[in-house]
Structures are given as structure tokens and as C-alpha cells.
Design goal:
heterodimer; A: about 250 residues; mainly alpha; globular; B: about 260 residues; about 80% helix
């Protein structure tokens, strides 16, 4: 377990070294809530839209920071750091588990204060619900890190990786209930609404809103959302670990 | 003038090498327009949001592509790449002007398909208005490219550059009428929900004026006002001049 902790510690430190990037992401988050969220809430016919939007943006930033681990792994492969990692007295499996946990944990450490700001603005109506949702979001962050590791290890061309991540980032947020209730997605285009049913961001934002007491626009039961997040976490963490471990052997990352 | 087309050609080739950035931006712009704006259209009753937002995303695309040149220029300043540029048989002012122009043209080329989408969905304006839109957007792109280069040459510290660039980006992006009408921003400001200076910034923001100019011709709202063009000229021409001057000065200083 100690070896896994070293891997996690390294990933968290690497993440916190991206000071400018993290500062700019925090600034983006504040601008989204204090400008777009406030003004858009006066434009729409959706009651309590500000609370709805603030909760959704928190999930967006949790997702986008958990995805970072894929970029780190990709850069390590490009810069020849994988060989160094392989030379360490740590088994491949522990290295893979550490990367997956570290990727999710570091995003959670970063997002926690921002989440605190949002909760101070919108409040928590039921602390037990919130704790359950909080735990599920933890799993969500690990699942996203696993997904990102899977993509990073699966795509060998730098161009393809960047293009795939860019397109995924653009679509996954917009085709979810992060920014708008599902009923309006259905009205705009039923296909968008259908796609949102398979989007982990939809279920993560639903759970976070449920935890914070914003239950007006929930499209799924909290139990179903929690189950989907657990499924997402299990599948992608497992695939991420297996994929990473296998690719490490014999220069599969090259 | 003979060297400027070569500089522009070089910068264009570099631009199209950023496949990841282009793919990400194109996906983002199209997703914003055809997913986000369509859903918001159902959530907003006082305006057809898709029609309102389409000119906004066009100007946003222009802004993002023209602003990109600053990243390259700052990289060149930090990595001493300017020695290579100085070794070229190109005058300093040609190099400076070429960089500002290429940034502006890259913005125009990237923006153009989105402008065509505007025309396809909102209607094709008469030729005279189309020319005014294109010319004004080119001026806007020139100003943005110049602003980006000015920021890029103002520091050779990457962290400072990233913060300055990001702050400028967010201020221009969020304090504008790209996403929401000016009347609404003013109304909210008058209610004390947001500070009054944000409404002033949104009004003088060149992105707001660019988006509102397209809206005035394609939607008729806000009504056309020559101030929209004047404010873009007042922003762009001095910035383009200052940035060319600053870039040429940096080249000379570091030689």
C-alpha cells in the first residue's frame, strides 16, 4: 500500500505544479458562475437556474481536472519518463492503481474548495444526502481518470489523442444536463436527450444537485444515478488499470 | 512589401499544424451553436437564442483564432527564436507588420465558415452590408492580433504571459454581448446584481461591437449604429500600430 501512496503523492505533486493552469481554471470557474451564471439566470424561464448552473459547472471542472491525468501520462510517454517509472521498485499493478487513484484524488483536492464556494452560495439542505453524493462524486472522479488513462494509452498518435480529447471535452459537457435540464434538451432535440442518458456527467450533476437539495429538475432517481456512477467507476478504473499495466510491458506505450 | 506575403504564408502553415487546437475549437464552436444554443432557445422566451448567439459565436471564433498568434510570438521571445527571424532578409517593420497581419488573416479564415453558417440560418445581407461586415471583422481581427502580440512581447516570463493572456481572454469573452444582450446586462447592473463597470466594459468591448454589427444587419436588432464600426476602428488601429512598434522594438532590443 505504501508504494501506491508514493505514486499517488507524485501525481498530486505533479498536478499542483501546474500552478498557472490551475489558477486559470479557477478563474474560468469564477467567471462562469459570477458572470455567465448570474446573467443567464435572468434570461431563462427556469426558476432557480443560478443554483442549477453553479452545481453543473462544479461537475464540469471536476471532470476537466480529472482528465488531466491522461495528458500527464501521454507526456511521460513522449518524453521518455515511462522508462524511469518502470525502473522504480514498484510493481506494474501498483503503479497503475496509484495513477488511477492519484488522477481522481488530485482533481477532488483541487475542486473541493471551489465546491465549497458553490455550496456556500446554494446551501446544503440535507447533509446526509450530500455526503452520499460527495462519495459518489469521488467515484466519478476516479472513473474519469480511468477513462482518460484508457484513452491516453489506447491512442498512440499525439494528434489523434489531442483531437479526440478536444472533441470529447466539447461534446460530453454539452450533451449532458450540466448546463440545462433534460426536459429542455428533449424539446430542442430528442436525440440530444437520448445521448444525455448515457453520459456520466448527467448522472454526476444529478447526484450533486440532489445532494445540495436542488431536486426540482432531477430526471433520474438518485439511486439510479449512484448506480450508474458506480458502474462507470468500476468499468473505467478496471479498464484503465488493466490497459495501463499491459501497455507498460514491452514498450506498448511507444 | 515583398516579404510580408512570405511571413503570412509561414504563419498560416504553422496555424494549420495545430490540428488538435483547431479540432477542439471547431468541435467547441459547433457544439456551442448546434447543441447549447438550441437548448437555450427552448429556455429563453424573449429572444430566439440560436439566432442571437450565432453572430456571437462567429466573433468568438475570430477572437480565439486571431488571439492565437500571441502564443507563438511569446514562445519565440522566450526561446530566442528571434535570432533566426533576424537572420532573414526581411526588414524589421515588415516582420512586425507581417505577424500582425497574419494573426488577423488567420482569425478571418477560421471565422469565415461560421459567418457562412450565420448567412445560411439568419439570411444573406445585401452585398454592401456583407462587405461592411467583412471589413469591420477584419479590423477587429487586426486589433485582436495586435493585442495578443502586445501582451506576448511585454514579458518573456511564461507564467506572467499565461496569466495576462488568460485574464484578457476571460474579460473580453465574458464581459461582452456574445452570450447575452446589452440591455439585459445594463438592467442587471442597474439592479446591483453585477458591478456597473462590467456593463460599461460590455458596451465598449470590441467583441460586443463586432457581434452587434452582424446582428444589426442580419437580425435588425440592435439597430445599426455607425458607433459600432467607429469603436472597432478606435480599438483596432492604435493597437495594431502599437503592437507592430513593440514587436519591432523587441527584435531590435534583443539583437
Amino acid at each position: 500500500m505504501g508504494e501506491v501512496l508514493y505514486v499517488i503523492e507524485r501525481d498530486v505533486k505533479m498536478f499542483l505544479n501546474h500552478k498557472i493552469l490551475l489558477f486559470m481554471r479557477a478563474l474560468w470557474f469564477i467567471a462562469q458562475i459570477s458572470l455567465f451564471g448570474l446573467i443567464a439566470s435572468r434570461m431563462v424561464i427556469v426558476p432557480n437556474y443560478f443554483e442549477y448552473y453553479a452545481a453543473g459547472i462544479t461537475i464540469t471542472i471536476l471532470y476537466s481536472t480529472a482528465v488531466f491525468i491522461g495528458y500527464d501520462i501521454y507526456e511521460e510517454a513522449e518524453h521518455g519518463i515511462v522508462e524511469y517509472l518502470l525502473s522504480l521498485p514498484i510493481s506494474r499493478k501498483k503503479l497503475a492503481i496509484g495513477r488511477s487513484i492519484g488522477g481522481g484524488l488530485r482533481s477532488f483536492i483541487y475542486v473541493a474548495p471551489l465546491m465549497g464556494i458553490v455550496l456556500a452560495l446554494i446551501g446544503i439542505r440535507n447533509p446526509i444526502n450530500f455526503l452520499l453524493a460527495f462519495f459518489s462524486l469521488f467515484l466519478f472522479a476516479f472513473g474519469v481518470a480511468g477513462m482518460s488513462i484508457t484513452v491516453a494509452m489506447g491512442v498512440k498518435s499525439a494528434d489523434k489523442f489531442d483531437i479526440l480529447m478536444g472533441a470529447l471535452d466539447a461534446l460530453i459537457v454539452r450533451l449532458s444536463t450540466v448546463m440545462y435540464p433534460k426536459a429542455f434538451m428533449e424539446q430542442a432535440n430528442p436525440f440530444y436527450s437520448e445521448l444525455a442518458n448515457f453520459n456520466p456527467l448527467t448522472f454526476a450533476s444529478e447526484l450533486f444537485r440532489w445532494g445540495a437539495g436542488i431536486e426540482q429538475y432531477l430526471a433520474f432517481s438518485p439511486l439510479l444515478s449512484a448506480l450508474v456512477i458506480m458502474f462507470f467507476f468500476s468499468i473505467f478504473t478496471l479498464i484503465g488499470i488493466i490497459f495501463y499495466e499491459r501497455r507498460l510491458e514491452g514498450g506498448g506505450w511507444q | 512589401m515583398t516579404a510580408i506575403p512570405y511571413i503570412i504564408e509561414r504563419d498560416f502553415k504553422r496555424f494549420f499544424r495545430y490540428k488538435w487546437w483547431l479540432a477542439g475549437m471547431i468541435s467547441m464552436n459547433l457544439a456551442d451553436l448546434f447543441i447549447m444554443a438550441l437548448v437555450y432557445t427552448k429556455m429563453i422566451k424573449f429572444v430566439d437564442y440560436f439566432r442571437f448567439f450565432a453572430p456571437g459565436i462567429t466573433v468568438t471564433a475570430l477572437f480565439a483564432a486571431a488571439f492565437m498568434i500571441g502564443r507563438e510570438v511569446n514562445w519565440e521571445v522566450r526561446r530566442d527564436y528571434y535570432y533566426y527571424l533576424l537572420s532573414l532578409p526581411v526588414k524589421h517593420w515588415e516582420l512586425a507588420l507581417g505577424r500582425v497581419l497574419s494573426g488577423a488573416l488567420r482569425g478571418m479564415v477560421y471565422m469565415f465558415p461560421l459567418l457562412l453558417i450565420d448567412f445560411a440560418f439568419l439570411g444573406i445581407p445585401p452585398l454592401s452590408q456583407t462587405l461592411i461586415i467583412l471589413l469591420t471583422l477584419f479590423l477587429l481581427s487586426l486589433g485582436i492580433s495586435g493585442l495578443s502580440i502586445t501582451i506576448a512581447v511585454s514579458t518573456n516570463n511564461f507564467e506572467k504571459f499565461a496569466v495576462m493572456r488568460g485574464l484578457t481572454y476571460y474579460i473580453l469573452f465574458f464581459c461582452s454581448t456574445v452570450f447575452y444582450p446589452l440591455e439585459l446586462i445594463k438592467e442587471i447592473s442597474a439592479q446591483g446584481v453585477i458591478p456597473p463597470f462590467l456593463a460599461v466594459m460590455a458596451e465598449i468591448n470590441p467583441l460586443s461591437n463586432g457581434a452587434d454589427l452582424i446582428r444589426s444587419f442580419l437580425l435588425g436588432n440592435p439597430p445599426f449604429n455607425v458607433k459600432l464600426i467607429i469603436s472597432i476602428v478606435v480599438f483596432s488601429l492604435p493597437i495594431a500600430f502599437i503592437s507592430s512598434f513593440a514587436y519591432a522594438k523587441i527584435l531590435r532590443r534583443q539583437k
